[in-house]
Amino acid sequence: MRRHKHLFEQVVSLHNLLAAARGALRGKRCREPGASFYAGLESHVVDLHTELSTDVYRPGAYHYFRIHEPKERIVAAAPFRDRVVHHAVVRVIQPLFERRFIEDSFACRPGKGTHAAMRRAAQFSQRFRYALKCDVEKYFPSIDHGVLLSLVARVVGDGRLLKLIGQILASHHDRVRHHWPAGGDLFDVVLHPCGLPIGNLTSQFLANVYLNSLDHFVKHDLRVKGYLRYMDDFVLFGDDRRRLKEQGRQVKAKLADLHLRMHPDKYRLVPTRCGLDFVGFVVRADGRIRVRTATARRFHQRFRAMRWEGKQQRRPMASVTTRVRAWIAHVKHAQSEGLRRAVLSR
């Protein structure tokens, strides 16, 4: 595998940093802190270029907050200047990894996404009798920084860029994994920080890199013809239940090599004729596609709350209309005319 060098100069170039700033500002120019950065765009970009070029750049502190939909998560918001650096790094290295990703990996990639993943799942559901649905337990908090850096270093051969990526990783961790080398005593413990912050562009990209080895293991070593992944949710398709179960055991062993664990409650083998729940849709072997019941219920609750806020003049009605149109555009990818009428008529 070819390792690419002389990448750091591309990352910290004024041209790349300016393009990264514009990417980070997309949709953020009218809100703090994006507005403040945009007000002094050129000077901020020059300052970042100087700090990165002279190796004095250090990531700032995160602002953490909780979201509760569809389940509680802790989101980390990096300082805006750090987000620009994240964009600058990803702009340079993503094309190098993109050619190494398998075709059926759909999360956080150009031209992919949930709807493409759903359509591919529908194709496989019509070809195969069974689907083994898998999910990694606490994926982002479990990603080992050392393992991740070693995977990145297989492609990135620039020491200064690897050091910068290491600084970004070191700015956050969820836990520390303890490892005792063979033959060592109690005090020879090696500490391995683990966890990527949900919210960083680099986290989304590097999380894909981390499971890319699993993708190639399933496709090339296990020779599974029907396989797709959306971040840490993935599905193996087949016609032989026994073989799928054996492949599932081998996948669990591969995850253990990456210091990950299969989610016990989201690991199940289902007949495709009964429906496969994936990326918010339920696809069946007969070609029917439905919106997940929980997804429809959550939007109905939000819709009622938004209508009340609009009537109380706490939210512009134009905002309600925008949200409704976005939801309609999303569920139109399924057979949802009755659902749309039922929800909106209420």
How would you concisely characterize the structure shown here?
Helix content is 50%, strand content 14%. It is built from 14 helices and eleven strands.
Class computed from helices, strands and strand pairing: alpha+beta
Write down the Rg: 22 Å
Distance between the termini: 57 Å
Number of helices: 14
Shape: globular
Strand percentage lies at 5-15%
Describe the strand arrangement of the main beta sheet, using strand numbers: 6-7-3-8
Main sheet overview = 4 strands, antiparallel
- Range of helix content: 40-55%
What can you see in these coordinates?
This protein has helices at about 10, 15-25, 35-40, 40-55, 80-100, 115-125, 140, 145-155, 160-170, 200-220, 240-255, 295-310, 315-330, 335-345; strands spanning about 65, 75, 130-135, 175-180, 190-195, 225-230, 235-240, 270, 275-280, 280-285, 290. It is of the alpha+beta class. The strands form four sheets. A four-stranded antiparallel sheet has the order 6-7-3-8, with helices on both faces. A three-stranded antiparallel sheet has the order 9-10-11. It has a two-stranded antiparallel ribbon with strand order 1-2. Helix 2 (about 15-25) crosses helix 4 (about 40-55).
